[in-house]
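Reply to dn_fold:

You asked what the input looked like. This is it:
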Amino acid sequence: RVKDPGQKMPGHKWLNADAAAKQEPVLAAQGMEGAFFYHDCQMRSPERLGFVCLIDASRNGARIANYAEAVGFLHEDGRILGAEVLDRRTGARLTVRARITLNAAGPWADKLLGIAERQPPSRQLMRSKGLHLITKQLTSRHAVIASIPEEIGGGHLFLLPWRGKTIIGTTDTAYDGDPDELTVAPREITAYLAVINRTVPGAALTRDDVVHAYAGLRPLIQDKAEPENPYAASRKSEVVDHEEDEGLKGLFSAIGGKWTTSRRVAERAVDLIAARLGLDVPPSHTAQTPLPGGCIHALAPFLSAMNDRYPELSGARLDELALTYGAETDAVAGLASESAALAERLSPAHGEIGAQFVHAARAEMALTLEDAVFRRTGLGTLGHPGNDALAHAARLMGRELDWDDEQVEQELQSVQRLFYAEA
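and this is what came back:
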């Protein structure tokens, strides 16, 4: 169904062991019978995708608030009438009133539900921790998927080409801690390297080959058959009307799911809420409507056109802009064209340029250096980009947001702690 001929995916085929190892030498020591060769999609930046969904919502009438924490709910006669919100930047408190409140807090959803219900939550999530390592480049062109031997846990792992490196993941272990306290411990990295090297001996990774490590949490609906096994748990999602299920009016929860089902879950939530309110809403068109920046009919001609339009930015810098902002590249490339200083790369190893950090502060609600490094750009994707790069980014944002020297230093320290692999 993809219109771009350059992104159509061929069917799969079987390769014998010699053919597979010829394609990817890392498989040579595998002792395998062969491999399936197939095509799949890769999400370049889930952080940007999530943010662009917010941009789209805002352009279609939603009011969005950054650093706003729901700390309580407005109750009246068994009904939720909105939320009590804490502004984490200023400490101010405010109330947001609503006919329906949707709890879409991901790994925090059951905790928020407990606050709404004023008791232990009626629905529990199983939180699965997924560890990912960024390492030296292990494959030439392809992703590699390998089955982990049963005697060391079973499951599978992926070796994915990633911006000139390899991203390896993911673990799938039960996480019982506070979602706000999620970290990656050095011992976890060491243990996962052992699993990787046992599964794909040709990788022969050492701790020095790891340039970055990070973890995420999957909010899974608890499986009654295997309550302690996240790997076996369903990736299904639910949209719960708590009036119907628990007698608590005015509250819905979207629980579970993943990126590939998220749009459908959102459509279902809107339809159920509209039905509860007795509203006649038109059918959703989000399945056919590109997100902001996504209106590109064919990628290769688009990249060529961007190179023609901004020859002074050609190469890695312009590719980074085009693949990050898509059809809205002009907003950032225009800033870079007006200022040679903003057109400079922050680091020789990265394509990000200064204009992206100015744009993040001006137009993308980035209030901290962490926002821009990890959630507006890919500067932090490959591990620590270097102190000079971070300092340059902090100064650019500081000029836009009126940070003094002390604030700039605080922002830098806050970002440093997130590069787990270097700890």
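The chain is about 35% helix and 20% strand.
Hope that clears it up.
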